[in-house]
Amino acid sequence: MKPNHMKEKDFNNTLEQDILAAMRKPNPLYWVALTVCACLFALGMYTWLEQMLKGMGIAGINNPVGWGVYITDFVFWVGIAHSGTLISAVLFLFRAKFRNVFNRSAEAMTVFAVMTAGLFPLIHLGRSWLFYWLFPYPNQRQLWVNFQSPLVWDVFAVSTYFTISAIFWYIGMVPDLAIVRRYAEGFRKKIYSIFSLGWTGSLRQWRHYSKLYMFLAAFATPLVISVHSVVSWDFAMSIIPGWHTTIFAPYFVAGAIFSGTAMVLTLIIPMRKIFRLEKYITIDHFDKITKVLLFTSLIVTYSYIVEFALAFYGGHKFEEAHFLYRLLGDYRYLYWLMVFCNSLLPLTLFIGKLRRSITYLFVISLFVNVGMWLERFVIIVSSLSKDFDPYSWGLYLPRWPEVAITLGSFGMFFMFFLIFTKVLPILSITEIKEEAAE
Amino acid sequence: MSTLQLRPVTLGVISVICAVAIMLIETVFNRASDGTFLLTLSFWVALIQGPIALAAAAEVSQGKWIQPIKKELMAFYPLILLMAVLFIFMFFKMDIYNWTHEEHRWLRSDFFLARNSILLALSFLLAHFFVRASLKEKPFTGKLAILFLFSFIITQSLVAFDWVMSLEYPWMSTMFAPIFFMESFYAGLAIAGIIAASLIRKQHTEKTAVQKVMRDSAVFMFGFALAWAGLYYGQFLVIWYGNIPWETSYFAVRMDHSPFREMMYLILLLLFIIPFIVFIPRKIKASPVWITSISFLILLGLLIERVFYILPVVSINYIWFLVEFVLFSVLIVLFFLNREKIIKNRTT
């Protein structure tokens, strides 16, 4: 990362200037991208409002497929949110240095993705204004939430995850905010002064900071696993064929990390190019993070094989019929596309040259994003459309509101990320300095 | 101990003698308790494959921390071949599986014996090539480590689904395999802890490096205790919540009747609560006595867990199990003491 001939002080100065340059006045292309994302977001919000006014009937969900694209989106975005904490916390505990160039963007991605995910249960509620009924608050009618419902576990899991992720992101950024404060002027200086919490970089502060950061990393790691386990139990706790299987928790956790890592690549590759960060985010860094992608792809593929094989192992007619339906039924094209994107295509990453080709990695990350969205869709929709009783079988096709709101969620996510690149340091300056000094 | 220095050929002969002894025990002396042999095989296969899987995983992830005890971890790999040979003798014990009365495509005696023995033999071959390449520091060692890990996951999955879970066919749980290969890896970490602690006591030349290995093993054991609990709870919760009689019966038998109920609490204590609590303080992670004790407790927990799976279905003769246990322990100790020769023999 640091050229051998360069002095440490010069490297640190260049690094600070390069990161701050990314925060300077945006170019027209940035404004175009931000406007497109904002428009998509506005479209999503407008459609949500329309759905609230006209009722859930305008969406495609029906009986028996009561969970459609909205729940697919929820699981997808919660999954995306996972990799941020993985890259930051888990790799920090494993002392994997390559995380230093990815962690800031990955953590930002986590926070924005949880915010996006959190909207979908509200959208799916129909009467979204009654969302506070999900919380166990004291009330005159003595109504109490059903603590036995995994959907209520979701509320606690996701809100805890959001809180810890936001704190972890913010705490990790404090020394960098102090650097930005040093260069900022006027009103911006005041804002950064407030948020850098009087950071001076003294030995005492660093000692407390390191301890807190380590504690948060250790706390966040089991949280990552528990949150997506809870999301998987939304499905596994029921007795519907294709859902009720014990492997769902690790399978969903691995899937979440897989999709999150792909999204990190989708975000970082253009960011690296636009802000000219090639000397900090090197090919070696991509090579290493791609191994995480490959590893999680293998776990996901293993889970596909195990759930499929065991459906036939036990001779349970409903399970057998369901998995044959996934393979050959109405949603078969989506299923096969999912297998291609999540299991077959990532196998090419065993080839070292491909792991080091940035263009290829960008393309594959897009395929994995598509594949992981399809995975959730296939799991949710195919199980509901054909469960035990043939009388209640039915198909589902998303309508315009689902499409618009999904587009809106992508708009919201990318809009927040674009704003992040202009107001906060996009790389962890202090950690890169540390790495270079070593 | 220096008198126990043996040539690789002698070690091979001792292994064959042990295999013949186990075969005789199971076919002549212990014909009444058919579960004994399965208990021996399912327990030791986890302990033998685990340390090599740990070394392979460290190779793939470029984990340098394992380096000072890598040779010691890899010394047990020839025993995988012994497991492959011993598994063939399951032929005499196939009556323990209820599906042998009505065989189908996957669960058929001949296919069952063939696939498991062949996979174990393949795993041995891959371990052999991996060890050889690793010691010579060949550039393709990482690829061989990946191949070995594939074989490890597949064999341990079959240990779970074929050897143990099919005892209660058609009961099934997709989580069984992840729990089994995780436990084997956990056993590998416990063995790494024991090895590191024993090397420190002997005033090993690279004492500081080995101390670091010991501490890292303890940290990983702490993490794996939590991960194990997560997987186990994940399996139990889904079955308990689903409340389908054919699924819950598996746990109902084990939770309502003594001694299985007590075993379950003991497993929880040994594989989760004790390592999790004890390994929190930093000082304990640097103490060879603590590391050795907790590592042995983890291995004991794994043994009890195997009994917990097998005993409700088929009887176990503890005397003969103990004899087989001693035979395997002797082999493990001999392979460990003669590791330099085994490794040297492989590299020349």
Write down the CATH topology of chain A: Formate dehydrogenase/DMSO reductase fold
Q: CATH homologous superfamily of chain A - what is it?
A: Formate dehydrogenase/DMSO reductase domain
Question: What string gives the helices and strands of chain A in order?
Answer: HHHHHHHHHHHHHHH
| Number of β-strand runs of chain A | 0
CATH architecture of chain A: Up-down Bundle
Question: Low-confidence stretches of chain B at least 5 residues in length (pLDDT < 50)?
Answer: none
- Helix fraction bin of chain B: over 70%
Largest interface: A-B, 26 and 28 residues
Largest sheet of chain B: none
The count of strands of chain B amounts to 0
Order of helices and strands of chain B: HHHHHHHHHHHHH
Sheet/helix structural class of chain B = mainly alpha
Note the gap between the termini of chain A. 11 Å
Mean pLDDT across all amino acids of chain B: 90
CATH class of chain A: Mainly Alpha
How far is it from the N-terminal to the C-terminal residue of chain B, by CA?
A: 25 Å
Arithmetic mean pLDDT of chain A: 90
Overall geometry of chain A comes to globular
Multimeric state: heterodimer
Task: Quickly describe the structure.
The complex is a heterodimer of chains A (438) and B (348). With 438 residues, chain A is mainly α.
Describe it.
The complex is a heterodimer of chains A (about 450) and B (about 350). Chain A starts with 7 loop residues before the first helix and ends with a helix. Chain A has one domain: Formate dehydrogenase/DMSO reductase domain (Formate dehydrogenase/DMSO reductase fold, Up-down Bundle), CATH 1.20.1630.10. Chain A has about 450 residues and is mainly α. Chain A has helices at about 10-20, 30-55, 70-95, 105-125, 150-185, 185-195, 205-235, 250-275, 285-315, 315-330, 330-345, 350-355, 360-385, 400-425, 430-435. Helices cover about 70% and strands about 0% of the residues of chain A. Chain B is mainly alpha-helical. The interface between A and B is medium-sized, with 26 and 28 residues.
